[in-house]
Specification:
Blueprint lengths: L2 E6 L4 H11 L5 E5 L14 H5 L3 E4 L13 H12 L12 E5 L5 H9 L3 E7 L8 H8 L6 E6 L4 H13 L5 E5 L5 H5 L1 H4 L3 E4 L17 H7 L10 E7 L7 H11 L4 E7 L3 H11 L1 E6 L11 E4 L1 H6 L4 E5 L2 E5 L2 H13 L8 E5 L3 H12 L3 E6 L2 H8 L5 E4 L2 H6 L6 E4 L24 E4 L8 H8 L3 E3 L2 H16 L14
Helix pairs in contact: 6-11, 13-14, 13-18
This protein binds 2'-monophosphoadenosine-5'-diphosphate (ATR).
Length: 502
């Protein structure tokens, strides 16, 4: 089973030991990054494995490989020898592994390691890009059968991550550690078991004195508790969310909590994707069962669907796909999630007699407009680009305008409810307000589909004017529960409803 390794990047061994104590229950192995230690501390590494009480990887990473070591090669080799010298017959007092880069040729170090059971990790790091021949390279790295091959690359697109999964599938017979660094690599870290990678590297988050050893690493607690890393096997059903940049999403917390509570052998992973085509490629290679699709892919996914629900047809946007022998089946749960949430908030069964302003004309606005129309409301659509507002409004015979004075003046007659559907005001851009030109009167019911922050600048202003306001969190929960229905082919367990009001 794949192991969780914690990278130790403290300046002193004492600090590293403190971290080991704090995270012991979440990790199987630790990596002592000697290159982060202060020079005096580096001479004391030999006793670290005994002090840590966990298997330890000895690593002294050079700056060219993404590490901190800037001394000469002689100094590095002499430090490595210090770590491996005076080996003990009790293996727990020795380093369990030593990381030696593929271009390091020091037979005496290897001999020292082998004699006392320290396993050699033969590594290659590309901190700037990919390896053009991953499969060949993985096979060529090992010099002896007892070694472990490690390749870490930095993909610049999701398509390159697909290549990594493919190389993993072609090298199931090679003992290896394989991972992608950076923003596209999350799937390789969570699904190490599926990749056949023996170790997933993690780091401590939220401790300012501990630098990040490699971009994209998870916190060990997150990997263990949220993603249930230790329970992931070849049989685990894989779900996830794709979008870009996919920074502020509550969906992994929602679905993984549900899966854990109901004991499903399933995991839900974030997959930032620069193109929906590459995402689908990855989803096929790793066998994903269902996916939440978010900004900016909700429309781009349409040509790839084998079947579409009626909502997807009418809205022209899809936020949920499920794998089927015929291909991907697309539906839209934003629409019912939105209308359920707003109707409950206003205590009505439909929007009959309501005059509503919709701000925005993108994917989210399409779902909102379709529901307002379906449920008998009348709307005004205002968008920065008025042509998009016109295109959305015309089939429903809604009014439209720009976010300019003329458009803002139209709100007066459409002010029972105002719904903000753009991403303007979302973290980290929390001071922006897409409707800054409008002055709330206080009678309007105001909804923002954003839920991070809880109160956008727009909602705050409305609340201060006396309006009843609702953010997008309840809508998110409701759409996620509908999504669960599509993923699992069963209704969301009612007994979990109250527990999922996170
Ligand atoms: P989504 O699926 O979240 O709706 P989208 O389809 O990219 O995403 O739509 C983004 C919406 O936010 C659009 O209405 C967009 O307005 P334009 O059509 O004029 O681009 C709106 N939007 C984005 N940035 C904006 C900004 N700075 N000010 C006003 N509106 C903005």
């Amino acid at each position: 089973m794949a192991k969780i390794c914690l990278c130790l990047t403290g300046k002193t061994l004492a600090r590293d030991l403190e971290v080991v104590e704090k995270y012991r229950k979440y990790v199987d192995v630790v990596e002592l990054r000697v290159d982060y230690l202060e020079p005096d501390e580096r001479f004391l590494i030999r006793r670290f494995p005994e002090m840590a009480g966990l298997p330890v990887i000895l690593t002294i990473r050079r700056d060219i490989d993404g590490g901190q070591f800037v001394g000469g090669e002689g100094a590095r080799i002499s430090l490595l020898s210090k770590g491996l010298a005076f080996a003990d017959v009790n293996p727990r007092r020795n380093f369990a592994y030593v990381d030696l880069e593929e271009d390091l040729n020091v037979p005496s170090l290897e001999e020292a390691a082998r004699t006392f059971g320290t396993r050699i990790i033969r590594s290659y790091h590309n901190i700037n890009g990919m390896d053009p021949d991953l499969t060949g390279h993985l096979r060529g790295l090992l010099r002896e059968g007892d070694e472990l091959a490690k390749i870490a690359v930095m993909p610049h697109s999701l398509e390159e991550v697909v290549q990594v999964f493919k190389a993993a599938q072609e090298t199931t017979d090679v003992d290896k550690i394989l991972l992608c660094m950076g923003e596209f690599g999350a799937s390789t870290r969570i699904l190490a078991e599926l990749l056949g990678s023996q170790i997933s590297y993690t780091m401590v988050t939220g401790e300012p004195d501990l630098p990040i050893a490699a971009p994209g690493q998870f916190d060990p607690r997150e990997l263990t508790e949220r993603y249930r890393f230790r329970d992931i096997s070849a049989k685990t059903r894989i779900f996830g969310i794709t979008g870009y940049p996919l920074k502020a999403t509550a969906s992994p917390a929602f679905f993984n909590t549900v899966f854990a509570l109901e004991n499903s052998d399933a995991v839900y992973i974030p997959v930032p994707a620069d193109s929906i085509r590459s995402f689908l490629h990855l989803a096929e290679v790793i066998g994903m069962a269902g996916v939440s699709v978010t900004v900016p892919h909700k429309e781009a996914i349409l040509p790839y669907l084998a079947k579409r629900s009626a909502e997807v047809e009418s809205i022209g946007a899809c936020n949920t796909i499920v794998s089927d022998p015929s291909g991907w089946i697309g539906s839209n749960t934003d629409a019912p999630g939105f209308s359920d949430s707003l109707l409950e908030f206003i205590g009505k069964k439909n929007f009959k007699g309501k005059r509503i302003t919709i701000v925005g004309a993108g994917g989210a606005a399409r779902a909102v407009a379709a529901e307002v129309y379906r449920l008998a409301g009348k709307a005004l659509i205002l968008n920065r680009n008025p042509i998009r507002a016109r295109d959305l409004a015309t089939p429903y015979r809604f009014l439209w305008g720009g976010l300019d004075t003329h458009g803002i003046n139209l709100i007066e007659k459409y002010s029972d409810i105002i719904i903000q559907t753009t991403s303007v005001g979302m973290e980290p851009d929390i001071t922006s307000d897409p409707l800054a030109l409008y002055t709330f009167k206080g009678h309007e019911v105001v909804m923002d589909v954003i839920y991070k922050p809880e109160m956008t600048a727009f909602l705050k202003r409305a609340a201060e004017a006396g309006c009843r306001v609702q953010n997008g969190y309840d809508m998110l929960l409701r759409q996620a529960r509908y999504q669960y229905g599509h993923f699992m082919g069963a209704e969301f367990p009612p007994q979990l409803m109250s527990r999922m009001k996170m």
